[in-house]
Design brief:
Layout (H helix, E strand, L loop, with lengths): L2 E3 L2 E5 H9 L16 E7 L2 E6 L2 E7 L4 E4 L4 H14 L4 E5 L5 H4 L3 H5 L3 E5 H9 L10 E3 L2 E6 L2 E6 L8
Parallel strand pairs: 2-11, 6-7, 7-8, 8-9
Antiparallel strand pairs: 1-2, 3-4, 4-5, 5-6, 10-11
C-alpha cells in the first residue's frame, strides 16, 4: 500500500487505489469461502480498507474528518458509511474517484448530502461529463497531474502518472 510520510499517505491513483480493484476477486469472480462478505481492515494509523463482496474502497481518518475513495453503489455506500461510523464519528469531508466507471463510483450521494466534496483527475471528470449517470456525483475539485487532499493531520497525495488514462 502507499508509503507513509508522517501523517501523509501517498497513493498513486492507478497503482495503489486500483490495485484492490483489479485483483482476481474484484474482476467479477465470487468471493472465496475463506473471506468474509464484508469487512473493514486497518492498514496503517488512520488508514482503512472497507470491502464488501468483490469491491474494496479506502478511508483515511484525520482529526477533522474522513477522506474516502470510490463509493461503489448506494448499497455499498450505506454499508461503507456504517463501517466508518464504527471507527469514528467524524464526517466524510472528501470523496476521491480513482476513475469514471459507474460501477465503482455510483454511491456518492449519501456523502454529498452530508457535505462531502468530490475529487477527480481531469480526464475522469471529462469522461463523467461525456457519459453522465444520475447515480454519479460530479466532482467539485479536479486536478491534472497531482493533487493533495489535506484534512487536518492527514493528507492523501494523488498522482496521475498517465495523463491520457482515465484515472
Amino acid at each position: 500500500m502507499g508509503r507513509v510520510f508522517r501523517g501523509r499517505y501517498r497513493i498513486p491513483a492507478c497503482a495503489a487505489v486500483l490495485s484492490f480493484l483489479t485483483s482476481p476477486v474484484a474482476s467479477g469472480q465470487a468471493v472465496p469461502s475463506f473471506m468474509k462478505f464484508q469487512e473493514t481492515e486497518r492498514l496503517a494509523d488512520g488508514l482503512y480498507a472497507f470491502r464488501q463482496g468483490a469491491y474494496r474502497s479506502l478511508f483515511l481518518v484525520s482529526d477533522e474528518g474522513v477522506i474516502i475513495t470510490d463509493p461503489v453503489s448506494t448499497v455499498f455506500a450505506k454499508a461503507f458509511r456504517e463501517e466508518i461510523a464504527k471507527v469514528t464519528n467524524r464526517p466524510v469531508r472528501y470523496v476521491v474517484y480513482s476513475h469514471s466507471h459507474w460501477d465503482r463510483i455510483g454511491g456518492g450521494r449519501i456523502f454529498k448530502d452530508e457535505g462531502a466534496r468530490f475529487v477527480a483527475q481531469e480526464r475522469c471528470a471529462e469522461n463523467l461529463k461525456e457519459t453522465p449517470n444520475l447515480n454519479v456525483v460530479p466532482p467539485d475539485i479536479t486536478y491534472a497531474k497531482t493533487h493533495k487532499v489535506k484534512l487536518g493531520d492527514k493528507a492523501l497525495d494523488l498522482d496521475a502518472h498517465d495523463q491520457k488514462a482515465d484515472v
